[in-house]
Specification:
Blueprint (H helix, E strand, L loop, with lengths): L2 E6 L2 E7 L2 H4 L2 H24 L4 H27 E8 L4 E8 L2 E8 L3 E12 L5 E12 L6 E6 L2 H15 L3 E3 L10
Parallel strand pairs: 6-9
Antiparallel strand pairs: 1-2, 2-3, 3-4, 4-5, 6-7, 7-8
Helix pairs in contact: 2-3
Length: about 190
């Protein structure tokens, strides 16, 4: 997942967005939703101009509006999905935001909850148990019971290490490499 890192006035912002080809999946949903909206609009236009009867068309209108909402809204969410983390060194806050178009869901956490940056590996295997791909995730971690905040993922270990050291230097937190180790049983 590509990430853009910006630093301004004591605030570090790590922003993630889907690759352009991943957004192509949403286009059929958006197109189908728009189709149903156009048909619903034509039904309303015919009813208002006198060529249709509202008593006969209301079921079809409601059905097309529901289809437009049920099919088009997930496509719109996938098309406009963004995730970003803001680390404010001055206010000592971490703001994790999921944004879908104009709708934002943000959670505020204290930077003092977090003690280090971790680098972990996430390996996918095929049916025979052979590794097919490995991603290296960089997360902001605290002690036991503190949910980590994922900052970025990389295909190469060197990139993940460099990113973790850059963010760790800015936040004055150590970066710990847990690649190849087994996760804790209680984590």
């Amino acid at each position: 997942m590509p990430a853009a890192v910006t630093q301004t006035n004591g605030r570090i912002r790590v922003e993630f967005s889907l690759r352009w080809y991943m957004r192509l999946v949403s286009l059929p949903f958006v197109a189908a939703g728009l189709f149903f909206l156009v048909v619903a609009g034509q039904i309303v236009r015919l009813d208002l101009s006198g060529y249709g009867r509202w008593s006969d068309d209301w079921v079809g209108l409601v059905m097309f509006l529901v289809f437009a909402l049920v099919i088009g809204l997930p496509g719109l969410v996938l098309l406009t999905a963004r995730y970003f983390v803001e680390l404010d060194r001055i206010l000592q806050q971490v703001i994790v935001t999921n944004q879908f178009g104009p709708v934002k869901f943000a959670s505020l956490r204290k930077l003092t909850e977090f003690k280090f940056l971790s680098i972990t590996d996430d390996t996918s295997t095929d049916d025979d148990g052979r590794p097919t791909s490995t991603f290296y995730n960089v997360s902001l971690c605290g002690g036991k019971g503190i949910k980590p905040v994922r900052l970025s993922g990389f295909r190469k270990r060197e990139q993940a290490t460099g990113f973790a050291h850059e963010i760790g230097t800015a936040l004055k937190l150590p970066a710990r490499d847990y690649v190849g180790t087994e996760p804790d049983e209680d984590a």
